[in-house]
From TrEMBL:
Residues 118-251, 288-429 form the Cupin type-1 domain. Residues 26-52, 79-100 are annotated as: Disordered. Keywords: Metal-binding, Signal. This is Cupin type-1 domain-containing protein. Pfam families: Cupin_1. Gene3D superfamilies: Jelly Rolls. Residues 1-18 form the signal peptide. InterPro entries: Bicupin_oxalate_deCO2ase/Oxase (IPR017774), Cupin_1 (IPR006045), GPI/OXD (IPR051610), RmlC-like_jellyroll (IPR014710), RmlC_Cupin_sf (IPR011051).
């Protein structure tokens, strides 16, 4: 050993001389153990930082620039670097040490989708074209200003929707010729089965914005059956016969589809309802007030589930709305019947998807992002931000179903659990058994964990 490094080492030893050598900060650094607060690097994206537990870092909230350093491994960045995107994806830049393998991309942000701008509104979509893992469902985010109309149309996919803001009027015709009209606002849903013709119009004062879900990832907003498109492509002589009027009546109908356009301001439902003597009202309920459902209250938030049990017409789409408190965890679970298509309404989250065969990958999400979790893959949603997290979990299924890891282990013979997980640490096994003794499904959990090593904040 050369003189200079010797004197450096002596200096370090003098600094920590009160601490036994095997537990000195230097030894802990070499062993990859967390350092006591005063020796620890404050910034988790530095070579001297150690975290064997892969704690989440809210790089946006804390104003940190994620860099590829992990427990002493890694290196700085020399080439071009998109800082904003790095901040939005801290767990891609520096994945947890538990991530492994090649799980395909499971994240998309609507802001990266092409936006179609029309008179009085706009629309953009996240389908299998934008996100190849969006196989079972496709999503559309649409805005209609006051009076703007998404014109009369139908399509082969069923349509489920959640109103994100403002208010909207929906109209439809059911399979038996009954008409349906309803006005909806934030937190309300609609569902139109395959082929059911319908329309949407933004109401007073600022119209509406909503999320549409279609039960096939290959759906495209450009491929719906639109009234004006059909008129424009049918001989006028035939339209004339169909409506028992002279063909001149139809001379000035639109020559191409209108899609989204500024309509006149709508009156009340009572004023607008068709009143002819053969008009009949639908017996079906195509809409539902999701946020008016009584919430299932968990230790870390609120859950509202809407599926064909409480919204019978919605045979192919089931959903859960989650309100997650700061620091809470949507517990480790999986869904046996369908891929999850999640939409983040508020807050910041990380999700690790476990895909068997030793593979797992972590993604970060924020408001306006879409996440996919293929069916049966284990996962959690962790609120890593400084505000509540609001998420929709949406499925191509008639009923919402999930398995809770906590509940499963609590309802499995004790000996088997300990033999499997704690054969090397019986004392830890005792603690674990005590905790799972009364298993409850706590979908959003907010545990109070005492950890002596981790009391220092960044
Ligand atoms: C409607 O939009 C205007 C202008 O953007 C805004 O000032 C107003 O607060 C909005 N009203 C509501 C009820 O959201």
């Amino acid at each position: 050993m050369r003189f200079s490094s010797n004197s450096l080492l002596l200096g370090a030893v003098a600094l920590v001389s009160a601490i036994p050598v095997q537990d000195s900060p230097r030894q802990r650094l070499l062993d990859g153990k967390p350092l006591p607060g005063k020796y620890r690097s404050k910034n988790p994206y530095t070579p001297g930082y150690r975290d064997p537990y892969d704690t989440a870092v809210d790089s946006i909230g804390k104003g940190l620039d994620p860099l590829p350093w992990r427990n002493g491994d890694g290196a700085s960045v020399l080439g071009p670097w998109n800082r904003e995107r790095a901040r939005q994806n801290p767990d891609l830049v520096r994945p947890p040490s538990t991530d492994s393998g090649n799980i395909p991309n499971l994240r998309w942000s609507f802001v990266d989708s092409h936006i179609r701008i029309e008179e009085g509104g706009w629309t953009r979509q996240t389908t299998i074209h934008e996100l190849p893992t969006s196989i079972e469902l496709a999503g559309v985010n649409m805005r209609l200003d006051h009076g703007a109309i998404r014109e009369l149309h139908w399509h082969k996919e069923a349509e489920w929707a959640y109103v994100l803001s403002g208010s909207v009027r929906v109209t439809a015709l059911d399979y038996e010729g009954g008409n349906f009209i309803d006005d909806l606002s934030q937190g309300d849903l609609w569902y139109f089965p395959s082929g059911v013709p319908h329309s949407l119009q933004g109401l007073d004062p600022n119209g509406t914005e909503f999320l549409l879900i279609f039960d096939d990832g290959r759906f495209s907003e450009e491929s719906t059956f639109i009234l004006t498109d059909w008129f424009a492509h049918t001989p006028k002589s035939v339209i004339s016969k169909n409506f028992h009027l002279a063909p001149e009546v139809f001379e000035r109908v639109p020559k191409r589809e209108k899609y989204i356009f500024q309509g006149s301001k709508p009156g009340s439902i009572e004023e607008e309802e068709p009143k002819g003597k053969n008009v009949k009202k639908s017996k079906y309920q195509f809409t539902h007030r999701m946020l008016e459902q009584e919430a299932h209250v968990t230790s870390g938030g609120k859950v509202r589930i809407t599926d064909s049990k409480n919204f019978p017409i919605s045979k192919t789409v089931a959903a859960a709305h989650l309100d997650m408190e700061v620091g809470s965890l949507r517990e480790m679970h999986w869904h046996p019947d369908a891929d999850e298509w999640s939409f983040f309404i508020r807050g910041r989250a990380r999700v690790t998807v476990f895909a068997a065969e030793g593979t797992a990958r972590t993604f970060d999400y924020q408001a306006g992002d879409v996440g996919i979790v293929p069916k049966n893959m284990g996962h959690f949603i962790e609120n890593i931000g400084d505000e509540p997290l609001e998420v929709l979990e949406i499925f191509r299924a008639d009923e919402f179903r999930d398995f809770s890891l906590f509940q499963w282990l609590g309802e499995t013979p004790r000996r088997m659990v300990v033999d499997t997980l704690f054969a090397d640490d019986k004392e830890a096994g005792e603690k674990f058994l005590k905790e799972i003794d009364n298993p409850v499904k706590d979908e959003i959990t907010l545990p109070d964990i005492k950890n002596d090593e981790e009391e220092d904040d960044l």
